[in-house]
Amino acid sequence: MNSSHTDADQKNTCILNGTYLSIRNLLSDSEVRDIHILFKSGAFDDGRLTAHSAAKEVKSNLQLNHQTQEHAAIQQIILAALNRNPVFRNAILPQSIHPFIISNYKPGMHYGWHVDSPVMGNMIRTDVALTIFLNDPEEYDGGELELQTANGNVLYKLNKGDVICYPCTQVHRVREVARGERNVAVSWVQSLVKETVHRKMLFEIFQITENLRNKALNEEEYLLLQQHYSNLLRMWAN
Questions:
Q1: Of 93, 111, 124, 212, which one's alpha carbon is 20 to 30 angstroms from that of 52?
Q2: Interatomic CA distance for residues 202 and 196, integer angstroms
Q3: Could you tell me the pTM of the whole model?
Q4: Domains, the chain, ranges and CATH?
């Protein structure tokens, strides 16, 4: 299964496919341009420096030095975009976000099959992984994010400014880049709600509640739906 965005005219829409959430235009065109300028002026290190254990053996990419001003500026742009996006906030319920890794893949580079570390940084539990695409898919061949799922492998190669969110429990890889360069920002989120199925259920209830807000609905039923959402969140929150 190959999942990609082809309709650039649709703004700020999302696709929820089971436990995988993709959001179009998380970053605006101007934000992507600003990141591109910072990206080009930054200093990059061997990506294996941030890999753990067996992942070092299968990782081949470059990463923007996290101590640079360019990295700090890109991080600020991305966090602002995430904070203002209601779909991300309500679907992922972020509690902590690991500092972003800004990656560059040149021809021949890849990241082989691996699973993310369960805990990173300052003891952040990794519940949800994010990949934000910083250049268009036409600019490079290969480089797809490939996830192993119960229904077969899924490929993601989205438009610049788009993000894919997926459970950190999935085995995944980045396919080898054959032409051009692949630029992405990746991070991991500790969610307020640990279990994927619980987050999905809460988000679906939230969407129903929002859709019914301005429609003719019995007020008692509407309040009951809100009550169930609140109580489930209270029950499942860490």
A1: 93
A2: 10
A3: 0.90
A4: 2-191 (2.60.120.620), 196-236 (4.10.860)
Q: Which two tokens stand for residue 217?
A: 């609905």
Half-sphere exposure of residue 180: CA atoms within 13 angstroms, side-chain side = 12
Contacts for 177 with CB less than 8 Å, ≥ 6 apart: 105, 106, 107, 108, 109, 110, 140, 141, 142, 143
Calpha distance 153→3 (Å, rounded): 11
Is the CB of residue 157 less than 8 Å from the CB of residue 137? yes
Closest CA to 189 of 166, 205, 172, 170: 166
Q: Which of 77, 81, 74 is nearest to 26 (CA)?
A: 81
* φ, ψ of residue 52 in degrees (nearest 5): -115, 145
51-98 pLDDT tens trace: 777 778 899 999 999 999 999 999 999 999 999 999 999 999 999 999
Three-state SS string across the chain, please?
A: CEECCCCCCCCCCEEEECCEEEECCCCCHHHHHHHHHHHHHCCEEEHHHHCCHHHHHHEECEEECCCCHHHHHHHHHHHHHHHHCHHHHHHHCEEEECCCEEEEECCCCEEEEECCCCEECCCEECCEEEEEECCCHHHEEECCEEEEECCEEEEECCCCCCEEEEECCCCEEECCEEEECEEEEEEEEEECECCHHHHHHHHHHHHHHHHHCCCCCCHHHHHHHHHHHHHHHHHHEC
